[in-house]
Amino acid sequence: MSETTETRALKALRDLREEFESKDPTFKAASTATRNAELVCLAARENLRQKREDQHIGQKALATRLDMSQSAISKFENGHGDVGLKLLARIADGVGSVPLVLFVSQTGIADVRKNPSAIMEVLQEAHEQLNRQLRSLIPVDAIGSEDIRQEENKSFTGSTKKAWS
């Protein structure tokens, strides 16, 4: 297929999707959810690729480390196929990272789009989730629970507010 034909075909598909979205709210909601999911996957792929590159680890070296093929790493980084959580965790481990997954409310994100100062509520929700996830990864005897609570309060109320003011 020539580039011109492919461009026309993609435009026709985009137009058709937009037509369905304008006529069917359920289709529009599903289409929006799919686009949002693709953006989440894209961000995860880009973050892990950047981590790998920052550490000067080639795809082949990472693949060897994970007992995978270099083409599997390439496909992951270049957006081929869905990003499964197990694969995501495995690749993150290969670059010395732990994935943390956050779920913030769509309403909160919509509020931030209208009123940027609403970011603090979204950050608070994300902060609480991060704390729960990190606590599950850190041995209880490593740090006293009171120390953790004090650090949580200092870090969120201090540096986070400054960063978003």
Description:
It is a single chain. The chain is an all-alpha fold and 165 residues long. The protein folds into two domains: 3-94, lambda repressor-like DNA-binding domains (434 Repressor (Amino-terminal Domain)); 106-164, no CATH class. The protein has eight helices and no strands. The chain has helices spanning 3-23, 25-54, 59-66, 70-77, 85-94, 106-114, 119-137, 145-164.
Distance between the termini: 51 Å
CATH C-level of the largest domain: Mainly Alpha
- What's the CATH architecture of the largest domain? Orthogonal Bundle
Low-confidence stretches: 159-165
**What is the H/E order?**
HHHHHHHH
Q: Could you give a short account of the major beta sheet? A: none
Question: What is the overall silhouette?
Answer: flat
Give the number of domains.
Answer: 2
CA-atom Rg in angstroms: 21 Å
Structural class: mainly alpha
Number of strands: 0
- Could you estimate the helical fraction of the residues in percent? over 70%
Can you summarize this structure?
The protein is mostly helical and 165 residues long. 76% of the residues lie in helices and 0% in strands. The chain has 2 domains: 3-94, 434 Repressor (Amino-terminal Domain), CATH 1.10.260; 106-164, no CATH class.
